[in-house]
């Protein structure tokens, strides 16, 4: 029995997948933490949306909050629980600490 050697082009190092790959595989069922968007200090920078590896953080344009001391309405942020892995990247990247990670309750 002969074995064909794999070329570097055929190898995939680690568990690398393009962003949003879990659309075919809902990953929300195995998270241990979930984000809680306080929506009080959010400045609308979208760092959480940009950093989310699954693209499940988005604006809730139907609900807004006013920044303290400012006359500016900012859309609230929410997440899609079907796809959020609970990785905490959104909370880590938030420059105003407006996202808490809490233990998931099943």
Looking at the structure, the CATH topology is Alpha-Beta Plaits
Query: Any guess at the CATH architecture?
Result: 2-Layer Sandwich
Termini gap: 50 Å
Topology pattern, helix = H, strand = E: EHEEHE
How many helices? The count is: 2
Helix percent band = under 10%
Q: So what's the CATH class? A: Alpha Beta
**Residue fraction in strands:** 25-35%
What is the 3D shape? elongated
Radius of gyration: 18 Å
> What does the largest sheet look like?
2 strands, antiparallel
**β-strand number:** 4
Q: What's the assembly state of these chains? A: single chain
List the uncertain runs. none
Strand order of the largest sheet: 1-4
Integer average pLDDT: 82
Given helix and strand content, the structural type is mainly beta
Structurally, the number of domains stands at 1
Summed up:
The chain is mainly beta and 106 residues long. It is 9% helix and 25% strand.
Descriptive overview:
14% of the residues are buried. The model has no long low-confidence stretch (mean pLDDT 82). This protein has 2 helices and 4 strands; from the N terminus they run βαββαβ. By secondary structure, it is mostly beta strands. The chain has helices at 47-51, 89-93; strands at residues 33-37, 57-66, 73-79, 99-103. It has one domain: Alpha-Beta Plaits (2-Layer Sandwich), CATH 3.30.70.20.
